[in-house]
Amino acid sequence: MKKEGYPICNLGRYAEGLRGKDNPNWKGGKLPKECAVCHKIFWVKPHHEKTAKYCSHKCKDESQKGQPSQHLLHPNLDPTPELAYILGILKGDGSAFRTKENKYIISLETITNKFNASFEKALKSIGLNPRTYYIKKKNTWATQARSKIFIGWYISLSLGKIREFLSTDKMREAFIRGFYESEGTREKCEMGCIDKELIELVQALLANLGFTPHFRSRVHRWRKEYIMYYVYISRKAEILRFFNEIRPCIKQLPPLALGDKLKIPEPKERLIKGREKMAEERPHQVVDRLLGSFAEGLKSVGANVSKALDEPSKAVSGPEPIHHIPDRILTQAVEAAKTAGEGVEKALSHPVEVAKFPPELPKLPKLPEAPKPPEFKG
């Protein structure tokens, strides 16, 4: 029994006899189409009207006779910046593999059509026939090409061979551009993956180009069994140079905000900011510095006491008894310890102020030199 308020599905309409034009979802049915080979009329759905060309696989195979297969294409594998760019992408988000049906596929799937268009242009430049299409379910763009020769050449490459292959600065820049577009982040100007040797190769390439790259590692955010390795550039002047020379097609800095974000501060301003950052992030270093200076003071106190006990005649000045000399030096050490304690307390309470104006402990007074004997004139 039909319930009121519920829509009827197509199966229900079919059971009730609402077929063909009587069905409210009717879109005109199949359309006639002429085969490009045998010229027979075959029927296709409306959304295949523009793409359907052949009535069967037999006609499609006959139409492709005499044309070279994509698997047998001979791409240009000479050292060029375009080929280095393709290698950088394949070491990142791209992939090159052989399927169970012996299909040799070069593939890239991203959410940015601009990136896929750049990859497709590079593949065409080396003699391949790629195609880019949109995947509606995933909301992504995919670029694919097929070449058995290219896949065999790519599988035979090791990281050492890639290092030798990237012989010029233009090829190194192209490889880094492809890898950055795949695995890079714009905010930190860093690139990362789980392959440590690959990150070390990228770090060496950046160093060859004159940059100062840094290396770090951490546990993967979602998969704790993996360790992520990163190479990044921290100097603001080098970040500006990176985007001006590498020129990635995506993950670029905004052109209007580029000058503001990468403004190089003056030396004094840089020093003050560095001290504030040190105080905010590592206040214990300020305490270590104070305690270190206090330890140096105690060493000098011990040296003075030892000197006074070994050579009391040189330490005595005037009517002061010899046993008063160690007492005086130890009193000075106690005062220095009090000053160090106050500095440590201030460093723990107000680390920012201490970092701006680091307190210096008073130097312990040295023992007075022995007075010279009076000269007698005969």
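^ that was protein a. below is b, sequence first then the tokens
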Amino acid sequence: MPDGLRGPNPLAAYLHFLVPELGTAPARSDPPTILEAERWGFERIAADRPTLVFLDDLHVADEATIDLLHAAAAWLEGLPLLVVGAHRSDELPPDHPLRRLRLERRRAARAHEVVVGPLDLEGTARLAARIFDRALSPALQALLHERTQGLPFFVEERAAALAASGRLRATAVGLALDQADPLPIPESVGDTVLLRCQGLSETAGAALQVAAVAGLRFPLDLAADLAGDDAVLDALLERQLLVESEPGVGTFRHALVREAVYGDIPWGRRRALHRLVLTARWRKPRSRSPTFTPATALQHSQPHDSQAGPPSPNTAVSSEGRPNRQVGISDPTSDVPGNTIANPNPTLVSTAS
């Protein structure tokens, strides 16, 4: 408990929900009294020495917390107290009250904002080297940066998983990973990603699975058509699982999101989805499928191991520019019934002519 809050004061009990050590919560309370108690608490803490208050994850803060910050903006001016708040801008809903607070503080010229972006290649390599306790080869640096996109949490977790795997070898230019050896997805990262998918409707979950099979970049109408509902993509875009990188083209916010979703799809359903995506892409006019190429078609024609992550495009195509039939691709122009996926359960994939 902060030293400044020690000692008897009638307002102390109203801070019980923040500092339980202050005693039993009062039987009744109201917002103005709680706000006054919070003001008293900040004043008492800052009375002894300059103080820093750090508030994390403000993108999930409730309205009462934002109301406190609104009020505190006025009465903290004369205190030796600095309030630092952190939030994820890409997870801030359009109607979140923090946006209003942020705008007001900017207009009053009383906010100092620091944007913390992802690490560059050098920063990724330095962070990973601290975990490995040795330098990485240029190839492993590039691979780790590409697969984590420089997000420190992903860099740390993926590097730790690699270090524990025993699959690294020392070379003259630093630690290296066999090119054929996939980069593992740590459970902590997979769980973090999949938790963000909780609460999606069945149709939205199906659309996300279609997107994971379709690729890191894909036509948005492809996922909507196969899921059977144009509106489901709104939920995925609002949750920042997907972003519209250019008109009509969807992209996973992070490559690891796609990897985790793809790896969570049961094998039979994954195989069926590859067939549906391949058929839909060949049937759709090329002008509406800007990310589709013969190499993309080839990746949907072969079985894939979820543990190895989503497939990479293969460039082996015939001289006519079509996928090579020797790898087992059926004729995409044949009479194949249209397909929709109304439920992410692999046993409930429906077909309709």
